Amino acid sequence: QVQLVESGGGLAQPGGSLRLSCAASGFPFSRYAMSWARQAPGERLEWVSGIYSDGSNKYYADSVKGRFTISRDNAKNMVYLQMDSLKPEDTALYYCAKGRYMEVNDELSEYDYWGQGTQVTVSS
Fold first, then answer.
1. Which of 31, 57, 75, 91 is the most exposed place for a label (fewest CB within 10 A)?
2. What end-to-end distance do the CA atoms of the chain give, in Å?
3. Which H, E and C letters describe 44-68, residue by residue?
4. What digits encode the pLDDT tens for the residues 43-62?
5. Contact 55, 71 (CB under 8 A)
């Protein structure tokens, strides 16, 4: 069955960095777009970043553009989110999600499997 397991969350200071990882299994990873989404307390789920199945195109929400970098390793069935210049408003539970198609879509309904999430807290 499809499994997505996130790791790498934790506590970071404002201006600091974290790297999230997502290990995927149970489906042909290289055929599907992958994205990261986040949910802060009391807020709705927000799409953050996505990457095409072959890694050729990457997309970012305006709130993280220039600070976050998404990547994937299709040989290892892994997707990553490098988060730099972190801000307190980046504090959230971060989820990895499998897309329904090769291309990225920022509509959350276009993702059919989700991980359990990894907590990111940015605070001094």
1. 75
2. 40
3. CCEEEEEECCCCCCEEECCCCCCCE
4. 999 999 999 999 999 999 99
5. yes
Tell how strand 68-73 and strand 34-39 pair up: unpaired
- The encoded tokens of residue 122 equal 């940015």
The per-residue pLDDT for 120 is 98
Tell me how long the chain is. Answer: 124
Beta strand extents in 1-124 (DSSP E only): 3-7, 10-12, 18-25, 34-39, 46-51, 58-60, 68-73, 78-83, 92-99, 111-114, 118-122
Mean pLDDT of the region 79-84: 98
Distance CA 101, CA 52 (A): 9
- Residues 6+ away with beta carbon under 8 Å from 33: 50, 51, 52, 53, 99, 101, 102, 103, 104, 105
**How many other CB atoms are there within 10 angstroms of residue 26's CB atom?**
12
